[in-house]
Amino acid sequence: MTKPEILVTRAVFPDVVERLSQYFEVEANPDDQLYSKDELIAKLQGKAGVFTTPSSSITAEVIAACPSLKAICNMAVGFNNIDVAAATQAGILVTNTPDVLNETTADFAWALLLAAARRVTESEHWLRAGKWQKWRYDTLLGADIHGATLGIIGMGRIGQAIARRSMGFDMNVIYHNRSRVPEQLEARANNARYVSKEELLRTADHVMLALPYSPEAHHTIGAAELAQMKPSATLVNIARGGIVDDAALIVALRAGRLAAAGLDVFENEPAFDPGFLTLSNVVLTPHIASASEPTRRAMANCAADNLIAALGGISPPNLLNPEAMAKIQGMAKG
Ligand code: GLV
């Protein structure tokens, strides 16, 4: 029996590609070229599945131009690079990689908060520049984490993992989310208290963003929201570029309207706003919150599991559009 053909849009762990090739004819991309939209469409001709990452946009136009496609499996929990509605309409299964990255991503949110609020990277640049000539009482003073109020916007699985870690810092946790989470989850999340976005911005000492990107979430933090935050506050974004208005954030950081920020994601990344590079009160990382070796492996294998199931006629473990499955099953029954 001939194997279905799939495309792996970016370089991934060779052993995961090897695993996929037991089931599929794989067109991989070990040189990690970035495909244009037209190249992507050309490469997807005749392919039944695509193993993709957030850096490849599987838009309605791509979907319409690739009629052989049956499954789109993203190696990421966020899936705003995929037009899920268009895929559903076309009867294509879409999957993501939730859960496997929660703890690693939450760890990294804390790395950014600690580094930004306590000026860790700024201190290191200062020291490396030979500026450490004597001890001074006010060298690189930062904000305290312990005992502070942590505001989390987006209390999904990653937000909850972030909140749990705040117990060790004796923090008071408040959160805002589309809706309140069940009480037992709030209790596990260091007794997080549900508040309005306005109250969170006004009262939090540090704000972490852990919500998925959607058109409604675009610029959740813009100039108006930054103006509501405490000038001593730190903002951390490990969610997605576009959730923060980066230009407005640069203005606020430059004006000292906000003390510091820790950012792993940016608008238009990797071509982020160069204004950030002129600021010392921001910690910048290249979208690596989930990038521990075991977690990136788990994500790659999770995406592979989904693709193997989807093209094997089994409902994939992380199916985002069960309506598409129902559609396929309906068509099979005739
Ligand atoms: C990474 O950004 C992800 O969505 O998994």
The domain count comes to 2
Give the terminus-to-terminus CA distance. Answer: 24 Å
User: What would CATH call the architecture of the largest domain?
Assistant: 3-Layer(aba) Sandwich
Low-pLDDT runs of 5+ residues are none
Number of strands: 12
Instruction: Give the ordered list of helices and strands.
Output: EHEHEHEHEHHEHEHEHEHEHEEHH
Q: What structural category arises from helix and sheet content?
A: alpha/beta
Describe the protein's architecture and organization.
The protein is of the alpha/beta class. It has helices at 14-21, 37-44, 60-64, 84-89, 102-117, 120-128, 157-165, 183-188, 197-203, 223-228, 246-254, 293-311, 322-333, and strands spanning 5-8, 25-27, 49-52, 71-74, 93-95, 149-153, 172-176, 193-194, 206-209, 234-237, 260-263, 282-284. It has 2 domains: 5-98 and 293-333, 3-Layer(aba) Sandwich (Rossmann fold), CATH 3.40.50.720; 102-284, NAD(P)-binding Rossmann-like Domain (Rossmann fold, 3-Layer(aba) Sandwich), CATH 3.40.50. Helix content is 36%, strand content 13%. The strands form 2 sheets. It has a 7-stranded parallel β-sheet with strand order 8-7-6-9-10-11-12, sandwiched between helices. β10 (234-237), α11 and β11 form a beta-alpha-beta unit. The two termini are 24 Å apart. The structure holds glyoxylic acid. Glyoxylic acid (GLV) binds at residues 54, 76-78, 101, 290.
